[in-house]
Please model this.
Amino acid sequence: MGKPKVVLGVSGGIAAYKACELLRRLTESGHDVRVVPTAASLNFVGEATWAALSGNPASTEVWETVHEVPHVRIGQAADLVVVAPATADMLAKAAHGLADDLLTNTLLTARCPVVFAPAMHTEMWEHPATQENVAVLRRRGALVIEPAVGRLTGKDTGKGRLPDPEEIFEVCRQVLRRGTAEQDLAGRHVVISAGGTREPLDPVRFLGNRSSGKQGYALARTAVARGARVTLVAANTALADPAGVDVVRVGTAVQLREAVLKAAADADAVVMAAAVADFRPAEYAGGKIKKKDGEDPAPVALVRNPDVLAEISADRAHEGQVVVGFAAETDDVLDNGRAKLRRKGCDLLVVNEVGETRTFGSEENEAIILSSDGSETPVPYGPKEVLAEAIWDRVTQRFTSRRA
Ligand SMILES: Cc1cc2nc3c(=O)[nH]c(=O)nc-3n(C[C@H](O)[C@H](O)[C@H](O)COP(=O)(O)O)c2cc1C
Model:
C-alpha cells in the first residue's frame, strides 16, 4: 500500500504561513501531500515553498499540465482533502459548488473525507452568509473545524483564528484513521472534563493527583472528528488546546463543578474523565504556611468536595442526556467499578486500573466500559484515542436507543 494521499488546499488568508507547518507534519508522518493553493494565497506564501516542502508540483489553475486532467485526477485520487486556512470566500465557493480554480474543482471531484479549517475576522465568521455556508458544508458531510479564539490579524482578538497546525494535523490524523467522514456526533454538544483538580492549602501548595488529562483530550479530539460541538473543561492540564474545541480552564473541584454544570445545560452527553478530588483542605491559609522550630506541623483537616458525577447523573439537564463516568481503581477494579456505577447513577462507567506509573500520563490505556444496562465492554490495551472511540460508540448507541 502506498502512502495516504492528502490534498492540502490553501486559500488566501493571513494564516496561510501556518499551513507550512501542517504540511511538514503531514509529510513527516508519511503522507503524500499535494498542495493546491488559490491564486490569492500566493500573495502570502509562494508556490516555490509548497513545491519544495511537499516534493510535488503546486498549481493553482486547471490550465497547467492539462494532459493529466488535474482538475479531476487530484480530487479523485485523494484519501483526504484539508483546506487550511479556509477563507470566507472559499467556504462560499465550496458551499455553492463553484469551480473556477484547481482547488474548487478538486473539492467537487473528491469523494474522500474533506476537512475545512476556517480562519478569518470574527465579523466575517459570524456573518449569516458564512454561517449558512458552513451549515451547508456540514450537512453535506464535510468536517468544518470551529476556529479558535485569540489574536487575529492586526490588534484585534476574537473568534476566527486558525487553530495550531499540530492540532489541525491531529484532526486529519483522526479522520484518516477512521477512514470516513461519517459524523455520527454531528449536531450534538458534548461536554468532557479532563485533568486533575488541585485543592489549595495555601498560595503555593495544593493537594493534587497524577491525572495528565490525556484521556479527556483524546475524547475531545475524537468527538471533533465525529462532528460534535465540544466543550472541554480542563483542570490543570499542560496540553495544547485541541482544534475546534471550546476549552474552559479550571483549578479546583468546585470550579470544575460550576463549569461542567453550566456547559451541560444544553449538552447531549457529559463525560467526566477528570480526576476530581474527593476532599479539599477545610481551611485555606491566606499566606504561606511556615515551618516552626521544634513544632510538628498541624494536621490537615479535610472536607468533602461536591460529587459532580453523582449530581449530574441525578439531575440531568434533559431526559436523554447521556452521562459517562470514570473509575480509577487500584484494587478490586471490576467489583469497585460495578458498585460505583450503581452508586453514581450514570449510564456508562469506564473502569481502569491506575498506579503511579500506570495509565496516568501515558499514551495508552486499558479499560472496561460498564453500562447501566448490564453490558460490559472490555477495551484492550492501546492508544487512549481507541478507548475514546469505544466510549463514543457506546454513547451514540444510547442516543439511538433512546430515540427508538
Ligand atoms: C492582508 C489580508 C489578509 C486576509 N486575511 C483573510 C483571512 O484571514 N480570512 C479570509 O477569509 N479572508 C482574508 N482576506 C481576504 C481574502 O484574501 C479574499 O477574500 C480573497 O478573495 C480570497 O481568495 P481565495 O478564497 O480564492 O483564496 C485577506 C486579505 C488580505 C489582503
